[in-house]
Design goal:
about 180 residues; mainly alpha; Arc Repressor Mutant, subunit A; Tetracycline Repressor, domain 2; 2 domains; DNA-binding; TetR family transcriptional regulator
Length: about 180
């Protein structure tokens, strides 16, 4: 495991906090620049660019970090589609801010791509080999993201209702289970 310098963690935390503040203040993401984020974070623009090339990269990095943390805690043994969806919903309920940032920055594609890679890992674990594996995993990831968004951010359903509906619409994700 690589050790990350404490100052690096503090700087990244400042940048991420600044992004949350800018999102909550309804700043237009499309007009966001590295210097504006740096100013909001209380760091120099050079420091911002040392860590990220673009504002979008901050969001992508957050997505990757949270999904990586999720994968570390994810229980793969005896995994069913229902157990997977319930774990996803529970974990992302505690990460509402990340989903808000994804929506604000229009980073859905990046999030869905990362979920699709996770689905491919599940299919591989279950020794499912499909000719159209990438397409199937992408469709499941897109559906899962939309349900996570509506369940976590909009509170449209109970966890059980959202899980039942998602599994019904995806045939219990039978192509990867």
């Amino acid at each position: 495991m690589t050790h990350i310098d404490k100052r690096t963690l503090q700087t990244r935390s400042k940048i991420e906090s600044a992004m949350v503040t800018l999102c909550q203040n309804h700043e237009a993401f499309a007009r966001l620049t590295g210097p504006k984020i740096a100013s909001a974070a209380g760091i120099s623009r050079q420091t911002f660019y040392r860590y990220y090339l673009t504002p979008k990269q901050v969001i992508t990095s957050l997505i990757e970090r949270h999904l990586s943390e999720f994968l570390k805690t994810f229980r793969l043994q005896n995994l069913t589609a229902r157990k997977m969806v319930l774990q996803l919903m529970t974990i992302w309920q505690d990460r509402t801010t990340v989903l808000e940032l994804v929506e604000w920055s229009d980073s859905r594609y990046e999030f869905i791509r990362a979920l699709a890679q996770f689905n491919q890992r599940i299919a591989s674990q279950n020794q499912v080999h499909l000719i159209n594996e990438q397409t199937v995993c992408n469709v499941y990831a897109a559906a899962t993201y939309m349900f996570l968004r509506d369940y976590v951010l909009k509170g449209q359903w109970s966890q059980e209702q959202a899980t039942d509906l998602l599994l019904h619409l995806t045939n219990n994700m039978d192509q990867i289970f």
